[in-house]
Amino acid sequence: MKIFLDTANLESIRKYNDMGLLDGITTNPSLMSKEGRNPKDVMEEITKIIKGDVSLEVVNTDYAGMIEEGKRLRQYGENVVVKVPMTADGLKACKHLSSEGIPVNVTLIFSANQALLAAKSGAKYVSPFIGRLDDIGKDGMNLIRDIKIIFDNYKDDFKTQILVASIRHPIHVVDAAKVGAHVVTLPPTVLDKMLQHPLTDIGLDNFLSDWKKFKAGNPDI
Fold first, then answer.
1. Which of 83, 138, 148, 178 is labelled catalytic?
2. Has this prediction a pTM greater than 0.85?
3. Is it true that domain 2-196 has CATH number 3.20.20.70?
4. What angle do CA 142, 147, 150 make, to 5 degrees?
5. Cβ of 150: how many Cβ atoms within 10 Å?
6. Is the pLDDT of residue 219 over 90?
7. What are the backbone angles phi and psi of residue 24, rounded to the nearest 5°?
8. Is 212 annotated in the active site?
9. Please, are residues 64 and 35 in contact by the beta-carbon 8 Å criterion?
C-alpha cells in the first residue's frame, strides 16, 4: 500500500520523505491556505521534493475553468495529478484531461456510485473521505470495502486506484490495508502516531540501561 502525506507543509514533507516513507502528496486549497505562503512557490517546491504523484487541486468549479487550471497545474511537473471535485463538471473535466494524458484524482467521494462514475470517467485515483462519513455516524471503511469489490469485479475495465482520504487515526490505515486499498493519504499527525508505541520506548530504555550497567562493570570495553 502506498502512503501519501496530506499536507502542504514543506517541513513535514521533507521530514517524512527523508525517512523514505512517502510515495506521494495530496493537497487542497484549505491546506495551501494554512501555510500562509504563495501557493505557486509551495507547489513548485513540493513537486521538486517528491518523485511520486502530487495531487494539486483546482479551485474552479466549472468545466472550462477546471480544464484551463488543470493544464496550468500540470506544468509544475510530470508527477502532478490534477485533483477535481466529484461533480458533473468535475467528471467531464476528468474525462477530457485523462484523454490528454493528464492523470486525475476525483475527490470528495462519499458513495460507491460516485467512485464507479469517476472510474468510468478515467480517473487515476478516487478519494473517498472516510473520516467525514464516520463523523455523521456512518462506517467510512464500509465504503472502501464496497469500492474495492466493485473495482476488483472489473479489473480489465478500471485501472483506477482507491486513495483513502480523511484519515483520522492509525486504525484507519490498518483497516484500509486489510481491505486492500491502493493508497492512504494522511496528515503528518497520524503518520507520526504510526511511528510510535510505548513498548518500543520502554524496550529501548531497557537496552540502553543494561548496556550502561555492563559498561560500568567492564571499563575496558
1. 83
2. yes
3. yes
4. 130
5. 16
6. no
7. 175, 180
8. no
9. no
